[in-house]
Design a protein that fits this description.
Its EC number is 2.1.1.190. Keywords: 4Fe-4S, Iron, Iron-sulfur, Metal-binding, Methyltransferase, rRNA processing, S-adenosyl-L-methionine, Transferase. It catalyses: uridine(1939) in 23S rRNA + S-adenosyl-L-methionine = 5-methyluridine(1939) in 23S rRNA + S-adenosyl-L-homocysteine + H(+). It is a single chain. This protein is an alpha/beta fold. The protein has nine helices and 20 strands. The strands form four sheets. The chain has an eight-stranded mixed beta sheet, sandwiched between helices. A six-stranded mixed beta sheet has the order 7-6-8-9-10-11, with helices on one face. A hairpin with a 7-residue loop joins strand 10 and strand 11. The longest helix has 20 residues.
Length: about 425
């Protein structure tokens, strides 16, 4: 970030702290402006050569030019600045940053698709830094290699289809790796093809042939979520395991799962360590999803209740509890951004609270909960500003202590900041 002579902040993409650069303005706002680096005049010692040839054009990641160890420290600074500026709070202890592999980690995402007549080709990739355009990429170092290595072939596949102008996106997701080296074996990777017109038989056959050749399950999505269906294999099994807790999670191709599998296991362990669950505890898990935290908790406590806003995920969470032989976890569907006074679980007693809200945070539900019943609160966040706001509420208005907080590198080489915080009664 730089500042104009009048003090207005300018966020400069592609520049690192302490550098002197030539920049071109790209956006103007009331409280800040945006610019992009045109030339680096004095480079910071932390600047490194980006691994990817598409860096700077593709928007998939924006920090490859920054030394990895410094990236996570920069994210930690962002978190602490948000606590100070928004929440007006400070953690008693800063947790060591949680990290895992920084390349080839992304197991879920969405590729945009666009037929470009001037280039006489179909592009499959992430958006450019200018989101009006799809980046023309042939490689990606953050997506799992078994998916990223097939990008050119995937683009050629779509380009050869009659419906190539009517396919706007392809979702990818991967469960645990399976042996896909023997012909038609399913590798655990699934592609969901969104199409705006019915596909011809030849287009469907081409997709199936591609799936068989690479061991990818192929799903079609002609409409909303309820239209998603597999065309190869007939009933693919999508699953990932958490061996520390002897758990296997089954999921659907468009379900939310944590993007970084290695970091996810470490994150769950850290959350449980901070929560310090006891065998006699009843725990409330809000924004529970598939039960990513709920089911590991169930292995350690008397009972756990998971609440999630998306009914489909609630069904899958219940199915996963049964799949793993867990009888002490129950799940409820509820919109946690609305009035919850009629929800019967709100009236039940609990000992501890774990929550993992979306970017908007958890201010609405926190204001309604009888917080005095909890001994500890562990808050997992994907947006430092909403965490800081909610931390300010808990500390300033409800009398809790922010005992510890830290960052977790769920998305290396991006500006995304994942964090975790522990609150205890004052």
């Amino acid at each position: 970030m730089a500042r104009r002579p009048d003090g207005k902040a300018v966020f400069v993409a592609g520049a690192l702290p302490g550098e002197r650069v030539m920049a071109s303005q790209t956006g103007r706002h009331r409280s800040f402006d945006e610019a992009r680096t045109v030339e680096v005049l004095d480079a910071a010692p932390e600047r490194v050569a980006p691994r990817c040839a598409h860096f700077g054009v593709c928007s998939g990641c924006a920090m490859q030019h920054y030394d990895e160890a410094r990236q996570i420290l920069a994210k930690q600074r962002v978190l602490m600045e948000n606590f100070e500026r928004i929440g007006h709070v400070e953690p008693e202890r800063i947790l060591p940053p949680l990290v895992d592999t920084s390349w080839g980690y992304r197991r879920k995402g969405r590729f945009s698709v666009r037929r470009v007549e001037k280039k006489d080709k179909t592009l499959v990739g992430f958006r450019e830094t200018d989101p009006r355009f799809v980046a023309d990429i042939r490689e990606c170092h953050t997506v799992m290699p078994q998916i990223a290595s097939k990008l050119p072939e995937l683009a050629a596949l779509i380009d050869g289809m009659q419906a190539r102008r009517e396919i706007p996106q392809i979702e990818f997701i991967a469960g645990d790796a399976q042996d896909g080296s023997h012909g038609d074996a399913f590798s655990g990777v699934a592609l969901t093809i969104r199409h705006l017109v019915p596909l011809t038989d030849s287009d469907r056959d081409a997709l199936v042939a591609f799936g068989k050749a690479h061991g990818f399950a192929i799903y079609l999505q002609p409409g909303g979520l309820d239209t998603v269906h597999a065309i190869w294999p007939e009933s693919p099994k999508l699953a990932f395991s958490l061996p520390q807790w002897n758990l296997e999670f089954l999921f659907r191709p468009l379900d939310f799962i944590q993007v970084n599998a290695g970091l996810n296991g470490k994150m769950i362990q850290l959350a449980l360590d901070l929560l310090d669950p006891k065998p006699e505890d009843r725990v409330l898990d809000l924004f529970a999803g598939l039960g990513n935290f709920t089911l590991p908790l169930a292995r350690q406590v008397r009972e756990v209740v998971g609440v999630e806003g998306e009914a489909g995920l609630v069904r899958r969470a219940r199915e996963n509890a049964a799949h793993n032989g867990i009888a002490n976890a129950e799940f409820h569907a509820a919109d946690l951004a609305k009035d919850l006074s009629n929800e019967h679980w709100m009236k039940q007693p609990f000992d501890k609270l774990l929550l993992d809200p979306p970017r908007s945070g958890a201010d609405v539900v926190l204001a309604q909960l009888p917080l005095k019943q909890f001994d500890r609160i562990v808050y997992v966040s994907c947006h430092p500003a909403s965490l800081a706001r909610d931390a300010g509420f808990l500390v300033k208005e409800r009398g809790w202590k922010l005992k510890a907080a830290g960052v977790m590198d769920m998305f290396p080489h991006t500006a995304h900041v994942e964090s975790i915080a522990l609150f205890e009664k004052a």
